[in-house]
Protein: MerR family transcriptional regulator
Organism: Streptomyces levis
Amino acid sequence: MLRTPSGGAGHGTPATDSGLMSIGTVLNVLRDEFPEVTISKIRFLEAEGLIEPQRTPSGYRKFSAHDVERLGHVLRMQRDHYLPLKVIREHLEAVERGEAVQLPVVGRQRDGELVPEVPEAPTAARIGRAELLAAAGIDEQALKEWESYGLLTPLEDGAYDAEAVTVASLVVELGRFGIEPRHLRAMKAAADREAGLVDQVVAPLRRHRNPQTRAHAEARTKELAGLTVRLHAALVQTALGVRLP
């Protein structure tokens, strides 16, 4: 269960008097369980129709406690069950209609019976090229330039990992400060080195014959990825002499 801030006296002003929360407050609430969630990811899930936050006259998003709970369900189904966003959306809509539905299971048929499959290397949610362009608000030329610098790389089938939306959105935001994609090659190289270090640790687990051990490798990868991201952020803040909220 996600805990939402009360917004009462003595707790700052994370929510309005109506109990609605800003996207920054929602991010802080979700990060207890989902440390890698970003504002760009929340915006992307909104664009995909998973949530519908209210808007102020100025256009700012305002989230209810129900919106935050729904976001938690979406992120949990992505993380724990590797379900596509379309399947997640249809499932949540059925639940809200009061239908008695079970969580969808990806599986195969055997003698007329559905047998759940646990993939050895779960495939992350994917997004098509056109969807990526629309979600990030960029054109084809910009995407090709970013690909030439290694900031975004399509999969073998031409699609992208859903996290590409987050990368693209951050590149756009940095561009507003005059930081061009070519300036980010050093960050990409550093990220590749960090990923290589994590891979060295988990590679023996991934090659193990025991399926449970291989599954443990996936969990260990996520844990190490979270730690490296936090360390990287802390080192950057220390080098700049700033502290982010």
